[in-house]
Structure formats: structure tokens, C-alpha cells
Amino acid sequence: MDTKTVTPPTRSSPLIGLPQRLFLVGLALGILVVYLGTTIGIWPMPLLASLVWAVIVPSTTWQYVGALIMSVIGYAIPLIIAAITLPVGRAASVIAAVMGFSRAGILVFLFTFVLAASMAIAGAWVGHAIRLLARPLGDRHGA
Question: Does some domain include residue 6?
Fold first, then answer.
């Protein structure tokens, strides 16, 4: 009697190109890395994490979407914690007033998220370019 072990198929999404569980774990790890990096003062961490993310994830769309998700959430967590424990709202209003926005403190938070999103897109773009360079010459004609 021939007994073969059958391994269950992994649910790999055709859109992502990775098993879904691995994708979600990588995304959560990216959020944690961005959060920890920004907490200890490495503010360009979304750029670095997005670059690594884009090199690993095969899908071009999910390189950028995942980079945006992990960067904005990773930047938002320290701001939310600070908003709960510290008077950052008043400080943001003062900064907005100094910038000429008549004490609209929410703009300071929005600029922070725009900065995180910009670094995420730049990092994913460089990571995507590195991924394309790593392909054999015949495969470089498509994203």
C-alpha cells in the first residue's frame, strides 16, 4: 500500500503573489517596524520599510498599497498614543499658527501623514526598481 502525504494547498492570492497569511504577517511586521522606528527617532523608517517590502512582494499594486498601509498606520500609532497621553493638540495648534494656518492643528497631523505616505511611495518605487533590476534581462519588459 502506497501512503503519500498530502500537503494542503496554500491559499496564494493571484493578486498578491504570496500566501495570504504570509502577506498579512509581513504587513503586521512592517507596521511594527515603522512604529518602533519612529518611536525611537528614526523618522525615515517608512522609506526603509517600504523599500524592503517592495523588494519582497511580487505584485506591483500590493507593493504600493502595502507600503502605504504600513507607513501610515505605523506613523499613526505613536501620534494616537501621544494624543491620549500628552497635550499634542495644543502644540499642533501652535505649530499651525506659526505656519500661518490660523491654529488649525489638524493640518499638522495631516502633513505628518502626507510625509509618511510620500516616504512610503518613494521607498516602494525604489524597491520596485531594485526588484526589476534583479530580473533576468528577458523579463524586464513588464511590471
Answer: no
CB 79 within 8 A of CB 112: yes
User: Which neighbouring-strand residues pair with 12?
Assistant: 19
- Residue 13 counted as domain residue: no
Distance between CA atoms of 41 and 53, rounded to whole angstroms? Answer: 21
Cell of 2: 502506497
In a domain, 5, yes or no: no
DSSP state of 103: T
Q: Kindly state whether residue 4 falls inside one of the protein's structural domains.
A: no
pLDDT in tens, 89-134: 888 888 888 888 876 888 888 888 999 999 999 999 999 999 988 8
Grid cell for residue 61:
499594486
Q: What Å distances lie between residue 97 and 60, 104, 141, CA to CA?
A: 40, 7, 50
Give the domain range for residue 73: 20-139
**Residue corresponding to grid cell 504600513:** 70
Distance CA 44, CA 21 (A): 27
pLDDT in tens, 58-73: 888 899 999 999 999 9
